[in-house]
Amino acid sequence: MASATLGRRGNAAPFRSRERRRANLRALIYLSPWLVGFGVFFAYPLISTVYFSFQRYDMFSLEPVGLLNWKYFFRDDAAWTSIKNTLWLVVVMVPLRVVFGLGVAQLITKLKAGAGVFRTIFYLPSLVPVVAGTLGFVFLLNPGTGPLQAILGAVGVQSPDWFGDPAWSKWGLTLLALWSIGDLMVIFMAALLDVPKQLYEAAALDGASAWQQFTRITLPVIRPVVMFAAVTGVIQTLQYFTQAMVAARVASGATDSAGSVFTPGYPDGSTLTFPEWLFQEGFRDFAMGYACVLALILFAVSMIFTLILLRQFRGFAEEDA
Amino acid sequence: MTATLAPETVARRPAARIRSPKGRATLYWIAKHAIAVALSIMFLGPLVFIILTAFMSDRQALTSELWPATWNWSNFADIFEEAPLLTWIRNTIMYSVLATAFMLVSSIPVAYALAKFRFRGRKLAFLLVITTMMLPPQVVAVPIYLIWARFHLTGTLWPLIIPMLLGDAFSIFLLRQFLVTIPREYSDAARVDGCGEFRTLIQVILPMARPAIAAVGLFQFFFCWNDYYGPLLYAGTDQSHWTLSLGLAAFKSQHSVQWNLTMAATILAMAPVIVVFFFAQKVFIEGVKLTGVK
Asked: Coiled coil where (chain B) (predicted)?
């Protein structure tokens, strides 16, 4: 705990142990819903996941198989394809989103006229339900029927078959992710407006160009926010599921939804993400033991990034009540 | 920004490149706003084309034409005959409303305790909230699924609603971030007046936290409204338990060539969200800011 807390406590009347116990009990009562939730929906399932990862389980028969599931993982080509795709999204989509979000936010803070209207317009797409937005993009980018080809065709450019071509499908998803940049934009705008004005005025007096002001003043000041956006972006991308699932389903023209023969990843496994493969193995093929292996791998990787984030939050948690 | 450029800075530059400070500022102004307008077209374009397509006839929607030849308002009536949309809407509303109400009831006291109480393990509890908020839901999906299967609740939306009675990490985090900013003096004053801790929360803190509660409630509502993963996992194959998101994703495959109807259904899913946003824009923007670090 921060020394500030101790200092304050030192000034106040000394806490007697009975009072402290009462305070702890009171906190326990207020926290109880979450504590139960944490136990039932997090701690227990996590331990249980470890247990199942050493079993073969299909909801009917349970059979201990030792390390078989873990060994299978290294031979599972689809799993590695999904890892590669997820990594691609982390390396390409996340940085692009951060740069684009920052650029858009920077632009709005510099606008003299209509900043409010532009903010609303730029934010709006991030509210569009994910399934609806994905459906829309698959249609819009479809070179056969969509308007994008009609527009590009007018200037003589041939649009790629975004969601039908393995080389382009992840770029299609990236466009969709850039379109719904609103949340990130608002976070960056708040950070940009917090940068002290005097810093810019002093720099301008010294003859710093707009670009110099951005790299020497803006970026260093908002660095924590950019870091935060990047790390949460990575964590969210590790969960990337709905857009890839819906885009593949719609673009492939597969029939039926739940419990169908549809295999995610269309075209050619190029949009298969790690959580999708976990879902497929656990809840469509009912290889639940193996799905738990995938879950634990996802847990380990997410945990690394969560710990990075927690380091940033350390200051937060210490903030005095 | 350009307006703050001191005159002498500009005067030092070669006269050939910048005719006058005023001319340069005007040029900047035009450039910035031109980029903003271009971006607006890119952000709004998809929505405009979705709307235009929704009005086309099914044959025209398969061509690359941009403007509807005839405005087929009947498309919006047809989609209700093509799919059990009303059932899906009802299920989606039930999921969203109940989950939001349950979340608020359970999460507010937790957030309040984390923000205002001093107790052993407070820091640890907060770190665990952040951790559960950050970890992908897929990590613990299998055992949780098995719990609900044991209660014979798979195939319904209840596995998504009931856990909300036990708090939601993201909402707790957000509410806590807001509650710590309320000065201690308010609750102290209430206590001096003989207010118990619970009454202080209800009568003093809650009214002050209204913007944060509204934001968290709206976020939860929209999350449920848009949720695809949850219903896909639990709602099963029986369409009478589906939500709008789930049905929408399957809509196109069931009506494979009818892009116009698919887009009409898409608008139906988007419209409520966008209408709410225009009424509560400020709540949203302030809420999103809370999610960032300060």
From this structure: none
